[in-house]
């Protein structure tokens, strides 16, 4: 299936924290959007890989995703090498997205930056026809997305572009809360972590509020881009 937007995320819940409002917005506009998670988040202190699989599927339903799959890379230890690049290229060529959204290039968790670099490298290499890949026994065509954006997750990074998500803030909150074991949930009995505190959840909403304020709306998500961004119609800018 061809997608319009493919989100590449190293941990299940990164896409929700970083860009689920933008995902929900574009699905409401009729775009096809999917997520490929790189790992099952098996090093997370709370829950387990199996529980994360269920939580990720629950979130996919809330967001109305057209596809979600997991590459089962090793959480914390995957590398940006030929094997891992090839696995990501296979997904890019499978879904042929115009736009990729991926992890921040520098963040609190070292996996995020490594995944952001891996995704950017794979997007470029996917366009080279002499790199041969196949899926289900079928040779794949080269495909290069025209735009790669990094969502801003934990560390504050000055965005290059901001997307208004005001009507979709509740969907964003609901998709994050689908990860019941990870985030603030007074009924959950495992030890509290950095991301399970009520303050962490407030900070996610506060970040969206801050980005919203900066463009004159209520809630928004910010993205960075390695290249200069162009626009055909100045009236699409706000
Ligand atoms: Zn993460």
UniProtKB/TrEMBL annotation:
An individual GO BP term: bacillithiol biosynthetic process
Pfam families: PIG-L
One annotated GO molecular function: deacetylase activity
Superkingdom as given in the UniProt entry: Bacteria
Transmembrane residue ranges: none
InterPro entries in the cross-refs: Bacillithiol_biosynth_BshB1, GlcNAc_PI_deacetylase-related, LmbE-like_dom_sf
Protein name: Bacillithiol biosynthesis deacetylase BshB1
Organism from which the protein derives: Pedobacter steynii
């Amino acid at each position: 299936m061809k997608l319009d937007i493919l989100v590449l995320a190293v941990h299940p819940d990164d896409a929700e924290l970083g860009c689920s409002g933008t995902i929900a917005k574009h699905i409401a506009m009729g775009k096809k959007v999917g997520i490929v998670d790189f790992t099952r988040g098996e090093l997370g202190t709370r829950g387990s890989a199996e529980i994360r699989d269920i939580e990720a599927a629950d979130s996919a339903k809330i967001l109305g995703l057209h596809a979600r799959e997991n590459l089962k890379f090793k959480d914390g230890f995957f590398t940006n090498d030929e094997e891992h690049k090839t696995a990501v290229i296979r997904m890019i060529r499978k879904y042929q997205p115009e736009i990729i959204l991926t992890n921040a290039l520098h963040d609190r968790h070292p996996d995020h930056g490594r995944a952001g670099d891996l995704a950017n490298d794979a997007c470029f290499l996917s366009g080279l026809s002499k790199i041969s890949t196949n899926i289900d026994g079928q040779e794949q065509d080269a495909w290069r997305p025209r735009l790669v954006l990094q969502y801003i997750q934990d560390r504050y990074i000055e965005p290059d572009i901001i997307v208004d998500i005001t009507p979709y803030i509740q969907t964003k909150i609901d998709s994050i809360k689908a990860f019941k074991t990870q985030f603030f949930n007074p009924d959950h009995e495992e030890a509290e972590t950095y991301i399970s505190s009520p303050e962490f959840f407030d900070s996610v909403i506060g970040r969206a509020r801050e980005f919203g304020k900066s463009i004159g709306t209520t809630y928004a998500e910010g993205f960075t881009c390695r290249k200069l961004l162009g626009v055909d119609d100045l009236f699409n800018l706000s």
